[in-house]
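ok trying this again, last paste got cut off
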Amino acid sequence: METQLLQTGQPNFPKNADIVVIGGGIIGAAVAAFCAKLSGGNIVLLERNLLLGNESTAKNAGGVRAQFDSEINIRFSLKSLEMLEQGELSLDTAHYQPVGYLFCTSSKEQMAAFERRVALQNALGVPARLVTPDEIRALLPHVYADDLLGGTFCQRDGIIETASLLAAYEKIFRDNDGRTFTETTVTGIETAHSHVRAVLTNCGRITTKKVVNAAGPWASEIGQMAGVMIPVFPWRRQVIVT
């Protein structure tokens, strides 16, 4: 991945910015890219690690699905796919593989919930469908469970290569004069009269009126610096590659 990262201690560390984005994962990079493209202002992206995408972005499977049980999640997912299909980023850029998502159950209550979920998904344009136990075994012959009642399947769901998508967002950000600073840890946020005044880091102080908190599991810590309670409670997970 081609990068032009500005390292700790360099003399061109910014004194001010129109917008400061905290967190260089895929969400932070995407937000920074769109801010830079739409506003054309002085946008700064801060990441505490040496490279972008080292935290949650590097540890997720890149799952893409619209099989949710709430309308807002479904609409967000469909909008994301639309952006990937029609915008500067293409599904080829993200190495999108529509391998499908299959959900199974042996619970009557869960099966009833699946039926309600598929009805909502279909109404919003998601090509999900209910599947029988025989159809499940046809889709995945190695699945064995005598008590399966059925499930749901959507072929459009699949996986995306997050590293490639991150690189594409970071390129858009740079192409629109955005500046990325790695090895930069945010240590505080100055506020006055409920407004942001500056972001404090181990590299210096950046005067700004706008901050985007894209710190993922650490979002609540960043929020506390500005006196804002953010209900993010991270849990340690295990990552197993098979």
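PB: full thing came through this time. Confidence is low (pLDDT under 50) at residues 1-8.
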